[in-house]
Specification:
By secondary structure, this protein is of the alpha/beta class. It has a single domain, classed as TIM Barrel, CATH 3.20.20.210. It contains 16 helices and ten strands. A five-stranded parallel sheet has the order 6-7-8-9-10, with helices on both faces. It has a three-stranded parallel sheet with strand order 1-2-5. The termini are close together.
């Protein structure tokens, strides 16, 4: 099988020839260029070249393309700080009150920085290797996370806790969903095979399962349904231990769930079997600080749990740290080849 066929089979819950591998490696790839990371993450050509160079070295099946967690926020007018040694970070929020959401417009990804640069990177990768490797072009942050960036984390959490402006909270989440969805369409139009959203602010580490079901879940589900109607595959990533919301996480309808290392792999496999594809969930701290043999052991153990019945893409549980050693990345990729074969 080709990498594209391998990933497609896993997403469709069919057994591939072996477990496919994803690398959430935009930070180490940018770092490996030797250029200041602020330059790479502002330039689609540089970002594409960084991802190409990494793919040529590691030979993974899936490229997860992004420039961090602040792309949509910046496109919507949030202050963003570019750094030389890490991904961009949001600064001062845009909204002083929930009522101001009505003043916001959904940005055009083709003309709005930095979305336009990620589209450029997507086009380059699609042209160069789009027939050889699966490109998951990330639509950046999902409804809940973009909402926190626009409103402010503590401010939105207070709004939710008080429960006095439910309609306006949903209005903000709906706006954030429309931003991510419009961006997702453009990324697929530019050559992405699938798209993804990050929802770290939607997990049990930050909000209760009850509030997750009441707020983020509604809009994640709507986004997944709309994209699916247009034949677009959506990944959903929620940081932390999602055990308390496992069934809801699956019920968003995302065809791929990007699972953090804190989540019990056996329990989520049992719940997700025959329903959705799991991606992950090797600990990024192990990838950064461990030894190749330890990475291999962790991959082998996860493969034993998640490989049965397919629906599994091996990868890190979240974004790899900037200085993740190349030998550990090689150990991750090679483990899928060594232990991940399906019976012919």
């Amino acid at each position: 099988m080709t990498s594209i066929e391998r990933v497609q089979a896993a997403i469709e819950l069919r057994p591939p020839d072996r477990v496919p591998v994803d690398l959430h490696n935009f930070q180490p790839a940018a770092y490996a260029t030797g250029l200041p990371m602020r330059e790479v993450f502002r330039d689609g050509g540089l970002l594409a070249e960084a991802m190409l160079k990494a793919w040529r070295e590691f030979g993974h099946d899936m490229i997860l393309l992004e420039n961090g967690t602040a792309c949509n926020a910046q496109a919507c007018g949030v202050e963003v700080i570019y750094r030389d040694d890490a991904a961009p970070a949001t600064g001062k929020p845009r909204l002083r009150s929930l009522e101001e959401v009505s003043d916001l417009e959904v940005p055009d990804p083709y003309t709005t920085f930095p979305m336009s640069e990620i589209l450029k990177a997507t086009r380059i990768l699609s042209k160069e290797i789009g027939d050889k490797v699966w490109i998951c072009a990330r639509a950046d942050q999902g409804p809940m996370d973009l909402a926190t960036q626009l409103r402010g984390m503590s401010e939105l959490m207070t709004d939710i806790a008080l429960g006095e402006q439910e309609e306006l909270i949903h209005g903000l989440l709906d706006y954030a969903r429309r931003v991510a969805t419009r961006y997702a369409y453009a990324l697929i139009e530019c050559g992405g095979h699938s798209t993804s959203i990050g929802e770290p602010a939607a997990g049990p580490d930050l909000i209760s399962p009850q509030h997750y079901r009441k707020y983020p879940w509604v809009h994640e589900r709507k986004m997944a349904e709309e994209l699916k109607e247009h034949g677009i595959i959506l990944h959903n990533h929620i940081c932390g231990n999602t055990g308390a919301i496992t069934d809801d996480f699956i019920a968003t309808g995302a065809q791929v769930l990007e699972v953090d290392h804190k989540t019990d792999p056996a329990k989520i496999k049992q719940a997700a079997r025959h329903k959705t594809c799991l991606l992950g969930n090797i600990d990024t701290r192990l990838l950064t600080f461990g030894k190749p043999a330890e990475v291999e052991d962790a991959c082998r153990e996860l493969i034993e749990i998640w490989k049965p019945d397919s629906g599994f893409i091996l990868g890190p549980g979240c974004a790899m740290g900037t200085e993740t050693p190349a030998e550990n990345i090689h150990a991750l990729v090679e483990s899928a080849k060594k232990y991940g074969a399906y019976a012919s």
